[in-house]
Amino acid sequence: MASNSGNAKKQAFVGTFVHSKKLDELEYLHDTVVCVDPSGKIVAVERECDAKKAEQILFAKLGWDAADVQVHVCKEGQFFFPGFIDTHIHASQYPNVGIFGKSTLLDWLNTYTFPMEASLSSLSKARRVYTRCIRRTLAHGTTTAAYYATISVPSTSLLADLCLSLGQRAFVGRVCMDRLGPSYYLDESPEAALSATKASIEHIRSIDPNYDLITPILTPRFAPSCTADTMKRLGALQAETGLPVQTHISENVNEITLVRDLFPDSEHYAGVYDDCGLLTPKTILSHAIHLSEDEAELITARGSKVAHCPCSNSAITSGEARVRWLLDKGIGVGLGTDMSGGYSPSILEAARLACLVSRHLAMGDGKGGAADAATMMVQQVSAEERERAKLSVEEVLYLATKGGAAVVGLEGKVGGFEVGMEWDAQLVGLGVVGEVAEGKGVDQVEGEDEGNVDLFGWESWEDRVAKWLFNGDDRNTKRVWVRGRLVHSRV
Ligand SMILES: O=c1[nH]c(=O)c2nc[nH]c2[nH]1
Ligand SMILES: [Zn+2]
């Protein structure tokens, strides 16, 4: 089956392009044309060019007939930005967003999460939930998502089918858990967990044989809910297939105590995964809030990556992940919404919350992470070091795009605008406020742009992007493409 049907045209995108060059630097490409071939690949990035020049020179250089090219031109206040990568999201928890009360991880799982996930064994309910989740995240500019589904194979297969048909690039994981869950929502045995995982992989292979858009991902939920036997089988399957792995680590202090009790022979939480062959360069570890130095060093050595989920970590009171500390150790970090631990489907929201959480660390009043005020004082962390904890606009937007791409193993393929990469992109539009109408004393808002961001025209491009980060939302996400296919449009 074609993995990205509905797109078989040559396209040219004209205007301003903003993307990450490196962790702390955004590049602004003005008066630029990006050409995308029918397979969704970027084949040209031409500076100092416009639609007319492209027609006269660039298309000919590519051997394109201008009549065959669909041209998209940015309007005032608009720019192209790479699609967001959500490195950690539970599609099956989407109906629960915002519903967490004052719970913390372990009671949150039992009260809200397991009942909702179990209920999605009803395929009609799963279809409603997954369709809405995919549409909503696309509308917020998420072009790639690393999804947890449920323990049900048909329900997980349905999520993969829907991502393919709605055009979202996805990693789809059938959740494995064979203990410490309610009896109605557990794998019967390690053998059952493994064979269900294999059935889910087979289904994805049948709908997208080359994993062009949808890739299976091995998903032991987290160490407390998996026996060592199950995790070792999944580790062996990873070694055999080379597939990616996703799980949770070190989110909550009670969870860490539980892991210590359940796995007394392992050195620490990260060691449990390592002992089972699950700490690989293709492993996405979510949260990683309370890691020790030894654990971070092991993760660095294994090349595993971290999904930082600031919304979830704040909502269910888990703590503050030390992103700068992780980055300094050479660990790749991306952003996750972690719905519904996190209440928002938006990676833009995750990026702004990553800024704020890093500032709480800098203020030293975070009581959740090992780098909280007391620890920092004891360790005599200098004022400069605390200041370094702060993440900039450029840095969180890197984590949301290029950094996330590296976390899910798509570096060089998505997350930026370079020849050879795929056109996974969003068109961002900010509201442009016109001159005060003479004699009326009120601002006139021009154009169809709406939303929460007002541009007055004097802002630098850096300031425009900062205004988008802190006040933007899905109203500013005008169009979204994955592999060149238009998958969401407000205009
Ligand atoms: O944020 C989280 N969401 C979950 O669903 C989950 N399961 C285990 N640990 C978890 N953490
Ligand atoms: Zn999670």
TrEMBL record:
Domain Amidohydrolase-related: start-end pairs: 81-487
Biological or metabolic pathway of the protein: Purine metabolism; guanine degradation; xanthine from guanine: step 1/1
Entries under InterPro entries matching the protein: Amidohydro-rel, Metal-dep_hydrolase_composite, Metal_Hydrolase, Metallo-dep_hydrolases
Cofactor(s) demanded: Zn(2+)
GO molecular function: guanine deaminase activity; zinc ion binding
One Pfam family linked to the record: Amidohydro_1
Gene Ontology annotations of biological process type: guanine catabolic process
Enzyme class: hydrolase
Catalytic activity: guanine + H2O + H(+) = xanthine + NH4(+)
SUPFAM superfamilies xrefs: Composite domain of metallo-dependent hydrolases (SSF51338), Metallo-dependent hydrolases (SSF51556)
Keywords, in A-Z order: Hydrolase, Metal-binding, Zinc
GO CC terms: cytosol
EC number: 3.5.4.3
Family to which the UniProt record says this protein belongs: Belongs to the metallo-dependent hydrolases superfamily. ATZ/TRZ family.
Known role: Catalyzes the hydrolytic deamination of guanine, producing xanthine and ammonia.
Protein name per its UniProtKB record: Probable guanine deaminase
Source organism: Pseudomassariella vexata
